Amino acid sequence: MKCKGLDYGAIVKQMFVNFDDLLKIRKENADKSIIFAGGVFDLLHPGHLNLFKMMKKEADIVIVAVSSDSRVKQRKGPTRPIYNEITRAEIVSSLRDVDYCLIAPEPSGSEVPTIQIFRNLRPNHFMTSDKSWLKYKDIFDELNIKLHLVPRFCYEISTTQTIDKIKQLDKDSRLRKIFLKDYHPIKVAKWTSKYIVNNTFGRSDRNRSKTL
User: Fold this and answer.
1) CA angle 9, 15, 18 (to 5 degrees)
2) Minimal CA–CA distance to 111: which of 122, 119, 103?
3) What is the DSSP string of 155-191?
4) pLDDT tens-digit map of 109-159
């Protein structure tokens, strides 16, 4: 795809790298600071974008890894991810604040993918909102990586919450269709009256009304 004379595909390809490219990137940028972060990045939201902006302010080069499809299914369930790993990586790599993006490798032995990336890339900084990384202090000290724990920016906005909202909207839409299909004024009036009685008066009120 081309836009204003630029080959968009070539731009994305340059920023979308492989795990094996990390050693080369570190070697070519020995005099620059590198910051790294990883995640699913399935449906991008303001929290993701704010993370990338913070990373860009902290170091010269921003590198982001997206979790593989199989890894996401293990952690999030069989219905995730929404976008496959290639699509997610291409979207993230096209963002202004991200210099390079890769698909994280699969777990190897006892080491999680992020630590494998640490050993190849040797970043100066690692940014995350996951406090469980505090237990890896020995790894950070060994590789001379500074851990940046940042708060989640939007607790009310997350990929999971967005998906749940879409599901609810779809459910509401289907219920409305069923209601309109079976709509009958008398049935609705009877149902409404029954609902008001059951939800307005207490049990004793209802029993008393039967004796009047």
Assistant:
1) 110
2) 119
3) TT--HHHHHHHHHHHHHHHHHHHHHHHT--HHHHHHH
4) 888 999 999 999 999 999 999 999 999 999 999 999 999 999 876 545 666
> What are the pLDDT digits (tens) for 2-30?
444 445 454 444 588 999 999 999 999 99
DSSP string spanning 54-117?
HHHHH-SEEEEEEPPHHHHHHHH-TT--SS-HHHHHHHHHTSTT-SEEEEPPPPBTTB-HHHHH
- Neighbouring CB atoms inside 10 A of 43's CB total 18
Inter-residue contact 71 to 108 (CB < 8 Å) = no
Q: How far apart are CA 186 and CA 63, in angstroms?
A: 63
Q: Is 6 helix (H, G, I), strand (E, B) or coil?
A: strand
Rg (C-alpha) for the chain, rounded Å, is: 26
**Top-confidence residue, 207 or 139:** 139
Q: Residues 65, 38: contact at Cβ < 8 Å?
A: yes
| Integer Cα distance of 193 and 178 in angstroms | 20
DSSP-based three-state secondary structure for 9: helix
Q: What is the pTM of this model?
A: 0.71
